[in-house]
Amino acid sequence: MRLLLVxxxxxxxxxxxxxxxxxxxxxxxxxxxxxKAAPTEAAGAAIEGRIRQIWQQQGSPAVMLxxxxxxxxxxxxxxxxxxxxxDDALVLAPDYPEAWLRRALARFHRGDYAGAIRDxxxxxxxxxxxxxxxxxxxxxAEAQGNWKGALAAWEKVLEITPRTAEAQDRLEMLRxxxxxxxx
Length: 183
Prior knowledge:
Keywords: Signal. 78% of the residues lie in helices and 0% in strands. By secondary structure, the protein is mainly alpha-helical.
């Protein structure tokens, strides 16, 4: 038993990029199981952080450079320039969910909701548990005034990570928008 505990701690200490793909998948599966059972928002946030870290480490340095450049450009209000960098990242890593999500964010900020939704679908086809994509999908639906869609996407987020930050507040707000004030 003690040997198993030591092995688990070593596995968690390894950077995700140093793990074999099957070891990364096994760790992610364990983390998602723990995420569903997280007793508090703080515990959930810690597990979410580790999951995001593993996802981030799956990108090559060149792809991460392009993603960071795209995010920087987007934060400076240059969505078109950001899209160029994110398109380049997808050429290098067409199966990398984070690249699809970042491009979805750039498209969302440009007002290209249909393109953003297509990119989120591409993200989720590569990793159905990619809860940041579902969170973004909920925000896109909200921006379109599609409260039922926003609620449906948020409920999927909560299936994966029920203790995500401000989860219940957002759920209640969306339910009020869909069902009225009396819910």
